[in-house]
Amino acid sequence: MSTRFAPLLARTLVLVSAAAALCGCASTDLWPLYERDQDSLTVAYPFYVREGPFRLVFPFYCRTNEGRDHHVLWPLAKVSDGRLVRAAPLYYSAQEDRFTLLPLIHQTPERTILGVPPAYIEGDFLLVLPFYLQSSGHRFVAPCVYWHTDRGEVDRVCCLPAVVYQRERDARSLYVLSAGAAWGGKSHRQWFLPLFSRSVAADSRKLWLAPYLRVENQQESTTALYPFFERSEIRQGTTRTANLSVLWPFYKRNKTVDARGDVIDLRRRFLIFGDRLDQNGMRTLSVLGLPIIEHTRA
């Protein structure tokens, strides 16, 4: 039926056009079969439409935008001013300096995103699954190698969890399992945990040689032989706090004195029992830190 109807429709349209021409008609309106005037022509809408620079041969071709845009198999393909703008569903380029080719590339003046499985690139970000990652100076190579560069110089290298090398300005540090060293600048450290640790700086020193500890700096002085005793002095402004722990956790004492040597706070503890004497002469007895008896010294 359709193959018979098409030639019949074509012959009918030809006859209508010829009749309109013989009659000298400036316009003919038999829409949607035939419509014609001085600047336009429609035949079997929407299969052929001409209106000035606009053309439509549905669904194969369409010309729009004063003749600058050409659509082929609309809306799949579009050419604008001689440049391919769209080839759906893969290629899109709304502006001349940017385009997208799905799923592989997206390019703009600011960045380029490239995805070619298993790789992905965006600006300075690069991912190659599952082996390599790069982002803003960071690098990671599976399964355990990592390094970081700053201004073109490597400042950190890791082979996790065994080896870590780090550079900070003039200082360097190296970790190998539980051992390590740091040097350069005004300080240096060495350690072999949990048995040994030593650090020396311009105004501080620390030594840990299990079970011995010695700390000395501007605010603190500590000497300990665990668990037998720990003695420390904390300096803050004009006050000094002397802490003493014997046979931890049995005995502990904290005494704070002012610049004249007067006691302003005294705390003592034996296991769960403790007492406190403050600078106002108030003495408090407690169990597990809870006050039991409070009275003022006579």
In short:
The protein is mainly beta. It is 7% helix and 57% strand.
Commentary on this structure:
By secondary structure, the chain is mainly beta. It has a domain of 81 residues. The protein is 7% helix and 57% strand. The chain contains one helix and 34 strands. The protein has a 34-stranded antiparallel sheet, with helices on one face. The chain is elongated, with a radius of gyration of 44 Å. The relative contact order is 0.03.
Features:
298 residues, mainly beta, 34-stranded antiparallel sheet, 1 helix, 7% helix
Report the sheet with the most strands, covering strand number, pairing sense and barrel closure.
34 strands, antiparallel
Strand content: over 45%
Low-confidence stretches: none
Could you tell me the radius of gyration in angstroms?
44 Å
Distance, first to last CA: 123 Å
Describe the global form. elongated
Number of DSSP-assigned strands? 34
Fraction of residues in helix: under 10%
Helix count equals 1
Q: How much is the average pLDDT?
A: 80
Class by helix and strand content?
mainly beta
